[in-house]
Amino acid sequence: MLGAPHLQAIVLTLVAGIADAVGYITMGSVFAANMTGNTVLAGIALAQGQWLDAWRHLAPLIAFFVGAMLSRLLLRVLRTPTAALLIEAALLALVGFLPVMPEGAVLIVAAAMGVQASAITHFAGNAVSTVVVTSTLARGADAVLDRLWRGDDRPPPAATNRRLLAFTWIGYLVGAVIGGLLVLVLPYPLLVPAALLLVVLFIRA
To answer: Best label site of 91, 100, 123, 140, fewest CB within 10 Å?
Structure first.
């Protein structure tokens, strides 16, 4: 049986996976949540002298950073992630209706992902990112090896930790699949992750 923290983490990774896939497909091959990918693509563009393309991949990093700072400010002032998640949901829900070009839209979604990245960072006592999965895979590998290797005095990590890491990676993958399908059938696919954020708030209640 999955506890509320696990469900929260899974839904949040679904949101990020959907947003990243929708953003990449519809907003000019730029990631909305995966800032590592944007950094690498910006570096490649710079190496090739493609200055405008480099800026297209660097600008979302700034938006993401601002979104994360806003989320942190809200947490310091209000002591709850509710307002941050509501702002993220509003940004995702409204972006499709705003008269902005794809370049502007991806900045709004990147800001929303920055908000999410700082809104909730711990689930059942475990620090887990819900907007990137590279570190999740590394921590999952650590947890599996520590469980198998009994040669030291350190206790193996809790089973819930391994399950949480696995479920968040799967959630991100499933979210990307859903995002890829949503752009084929819905005119405003980001309404789906916006609705999922409300589910996260309900789970927290």
So the answer is: 100
